[in-house]
Amino acid sequence: MSPSTRSCSWLVLVPLILSILLACTANGDHLKVGYYDNTCPNVQQIVHSVMASRVDADQSMAPAVLRLFFHDCFVDGCDGSVLLDGTPFSGSEKDAKPNANSLRGFDVIDEIKSHVEHACPATVSCADILALASRDAVALLGGPTWEVQLGRRDSRGANRTAAEYGLPAPNSTLAELIGLFRHHGLDARDMAALSGAHTIGTARCHHYRNRAYGYGGEGGAAAIDPAFAERRRQTCQSAYDAPAPFDEQTPMGFDNAYYRDLVARRGLLTSDQALYGGGGPLDNLVEMYSTDGKAFAKDFARAMVKMGKIPPPPQMQVEVRLSCSNINW
Question: Which class for 304: exposed (0-12), middle (13-18), buried (19 or more C-beta within 10 A)?
Fold first, then answer.
């Protein structure tokens, strides 16, 4: 091979190698525990302090913050886009149908960000703050804890269209749920474990109405405990937006009661009960979680770490936002 040929070969290979390296950065492999040890060593203590204070005052803030993290990661990766108000370049994901008038906790993240900016200006991303806050939300209600991998960046835009169609719906079928989670690199076990987040919090009547009145559902998942259905119908009669707990027994305790409810055909949403009743390995997994809370806690923590590594698209412009609701200008 002549020198000129070798030179041309390197010219071809160098961009390829660079693209591979960039792909590794984009796919979440750069995240690591202790990312801010030198630049903002107190960030985790700050997040925990604010979360503990807010959850102590209002326990419902814990499931609200946890839901924010899910809705962030499932739309263009864990990039803090769900926290953005509208920009000249994109609409806000806050206004998408699954989020409008239902997502809460933005003020909690803003409060944490304010304290973090005071301690470590322009250092910690809003996406990382949300990841830490969601871990603490779970732990503060008695759930597992885990080491959060950090190093995310904040997007400079949102994707309202993806938020309209890319999130699990209350009436999603099992096939739809599996496909949606698979799209983000999460398998059926991840899906079953992450669904256990519904062991805390509430849903509104218009989300569980179809289930309570016997509309929709598929196979064994269509079955519902009659007494449970009657209670939910009575709740719905009080108001269209009337809330009901996902877990009646321990609605603000992060435990495995959600799975016991599924086995008893008391899943609140059609998409909850879809996890159980169709036979097969998923039924076996739900039954195991219903009797083994430690197994659920372990799988949930592992799946949260995995979900937290869902990357934004490679072409997305990112930064460390100074305000979680606005891009830097």
Answer: buried
